[in-house]
Structures are given as structure tokens and as C-alpha cells.
Amino acid sequence: MGRFNTKSLSISLLVLCFFALPHTALADCTGQQCIESGQWRFGLALGVGAKSNPLVDGDAIPLLVLPDIAYYGDNLYLDNTELGYQWLQSDTSAVDTFVSINSEKAFFTFWHPSNLLLPANNAFNQAVGPSNESPYDTRRVSIDDVQSRKWAIDAGIRWHIRSGNSQWRFTAKTDATGVHNGHQFEVGYRYHWKWQDWQVSIAPGITWKSSQLIDYYYGIYPQDNLDSTFYYQGASGWQPTMAIGASKAINQDWQWLARASYTWFNSGMTNSPLVDQSFTRAVFIGVGYVFE
């Protein structure tokens, strides 16, 4: 395979996208991480994990069974919740445009592609730790008491740069459905290396979210049917994140998987009476299987 495929990590159906099997179609990829051009890939990760929910009365999201679906043609690709087209490709860079499901609603409803379709319970809440005590304890608002937030579809453009074991990704997205009319800009970096029989990666990043996006999901207004003392207008800001992952081949089809991530929210979001934590964190340990 002689071209650069931009999807070094899967955009997972589940929980902020990176807990599924990692996808690569780089010229130097090997084994379970490769996707042949023009071929479908179906995978499944089984294990134990959870993702914390930063909202008041929001249950932690269990991570037990994580499906993974991907297809890459010469230019067109489907990677779980993202459908895109690669316009420019080389061994070191690529540019693609895409549409994808916005993950913000995942905190408000369990029936979102970013969440596992299994019931949450106290064991998973304990696995990711207790909520921070909110500075707005006297005026907290449960997600059960506000109007439902809508799904949104993002449209965006992404530029990838690869050099050796390092990859940079620059992404700009906007609401294509008119739900919140907000925007996002992301800068991500990933470095991977081999340690004994393990493939290890570290991926810091930072995302800017516009005031329209944050205000729609975390603002409180008359339509929420609450007292005016609870009203809140969200504000834009930067949200840094850090993720680490590791995988080890068991055989041709199976591999060990481990992943952990931590994201810090900006004050324009955390000052909302809806928000109980200034962060979200996730962890998953299990095995992955690729269907031939």
C-alpha cells in the first residue's frame, strides 16, 4: 500500500471515539492495524471500562462491548460515525472533508452512538470516581429537569501531517444541521512506539468550542421551564485532552487493548448549573477481535 491513509485511529461509535480498534493504512503498517484499500473491516472490543459523565445526575457510561466498522476506498471512507472524502494524499500528508455526529449530546442521553447501549450502574460510577463538588451546589440543575438537547451533524475539513512515528492533525468543524450553529477547532498530536511486544501511543490535544455550541448544550433558558435564577449563558473556550493507549497481538485475529483519557473543560461550560465536574475521564481494558 503506497499511500497515506489519514485514519491512524478509529473514530469509534462509542465514547469519544477512541476505544475501538485503531485503524491505519499507512505504507509501513502491519498486522491488525492495517486496512486494505477497498475492503470493509469489522471489529469488536470486549472488556471492562467506564467513562465519567460531568453533568448533574449523569450516570457514568459503561464500556463493555465496542463495535468498530470501517471502509476505505481510494478516496471515500466510512469510519464508524464519520463519512469522508480524501482530496489530497501523499506519504506525509493528507486533506479530507467529512461529516460526523457531534458527540456533545452523548452526556444527555444514553441512546447516542458515542455511548454503549447497556444500562449503567453504581459499579461503573465508582470505577471512574466520584464527582467533584460543584461550586454551584445551591443551584445545581439535573439533566432530567431541562428540555432535551438535539442531535447535531458536523461538517469539517482535516489536515494530517506525518513524520516517522509522529502525526499531527488539524481539524475545523461546524454545525451542518442548524441545531446550535456552533464551531470547533482541534489540534491533535500522536506519537507511537514499540515497547517489547506492545504498540504504545500518547495523544495530547486541544479543542476550541464556540459559545454557540457550549451555550446550546449547557446554557439554561426559559424553554427549560426553570426559575430565572438558574439561567446561564455558555461561553467559548479551550478544552485540552490527553490519551494513552497500548495494544499487543495475541494471534492473527485477537489483541490486548488498553486505553485511558482525560479531558478538562473550560469555565464557560463548567460554570453552568448543569455541570458537576470540570473534567471527564475514561478507561478501558480488554481484548479486540477483527472479523475476517
UniProtKB/TrEMBL annotation:
Localisation: Cell outer membrane
Keyword terms, alphabetized: Cell outer membrane, Membrane, Signal
A Pfam family this chain is assigned to: MipA
An example Gene Ontology CC term for this record: cell outer membrane
Regions annotated as coiled coil: none
Protein's GO biological process: peptidoglycan biosynthetic process
Domain of life the protein comes from: Bacteria
Signal sequence extent: 1-27
InterPro entries for this protein: MipA (IPR010583)
Family: Belongs to the MipA/OmpV family.
PANTHER family associated with the record: MLTA-INTERACTING PROTEIN-RELATED
Protein name listed in UniProt: Outer membrane protein
Annotated organism of origin: Paraglaciecola chathamensis S18K6
